[in-house]
């Protein structure tokens, strides 16, 4: 391990199993880092300090008694759209949200694997936007450059992992909300097959376009968290067959046929890939060629796939708005989108859902020629904090589509995608690329991502210090990356 590098999920789990560190020490370290950075990064909506320490002590007792579970005693975080027993689930909104009585299925499975949930991370209001800002909690900032957003809507989870506050975190992805913040914070982000990680107590989320996923610094860490959280609830609408992604880490993917797709899907407003982002993605394509894969430019036949996205997204938002204690406190853009969702929630929604099978056939035809699609995750690096503040709903949509036109079609399809770091633009701003596959292709994507990681070694660069040029704050320290198992030879 590079000296000073934050220890990952696999490393921490191994150290706990070997007895070289205690869960209490790791949880205390995580809590101290969260406290030290909350005023700067603002990654967490809620911190479970007392409960997490009690759970750490219980984990230490279990370890001392010879207990073995995959994540026993490891601190992790979850996004604040997931239920944690005894805590509110505000999902980025203002208002008095009551504590929920029990864990959601994904959190329950993390606990069953032994993980300690240190807190719930910030997300924009009802997960709509690729930034994590709002009156309910303030601005969540990018550890690489605190004048910029970490992305959204899983921005708090991304900021927490990128800054080394926790080794991995759960997020959710309805239009790229795991992959976009992973791209903008130099992380691996896995959007799995629909239903791979349960969304219960909702049988599906946003009419099936939103799935839960993982963020981590390495492919192995992201895969381990995915395996720990995966599994269905008896009442889930989508229950894919079980598989293990960690088994694919280090496995030779073989010689693959890879479609490099740089053209964004059709949108109603302009979207253009920035040349410097294009260059980073093309450089990854060249490395894949050097690793023995066959890479050529080809685009999925997306067609008018947006017609199958908008009704599901807005109708799902309208349903979430109905659950908010005080809708009057919501952003006007949220209320406008919910009104549209109520209009589209009948016949247009049913047509959008019926279209999915046709889209699977048409877009899936690409996979008779290619094994994987390589595409940009975003068209641009992370925007500045506040860049979208005060815009109209249409203005926000234009800005979102301009920056993030690439991720959302795979949410309509329900298929897996993995963001991998692609380098930096403007000196300090990370960007990423997506590896996209057909149904149930997580092991193939993880195998390829791990091969690329071994070549690129992106985990050797982390934001121990970052410069906030916008605020003139100079070098901003995000807490010491020290403590048990945090450094190595």
TrEMBL record:
InterPro entries: Amidase, Amidase_CS, Amidase_dom, AS_sf. It comes from the Bacteria. Residues 465-489 are annotated as: Disordered. Residues 26-445 form the Amidase domain. SUPFAM superfamilies: Amidase signature (AS) enzymes. Transmembrane segments: none annotated. Belongs to the amidase family. This is Amidase. It comes from Streptomyces dioscori.
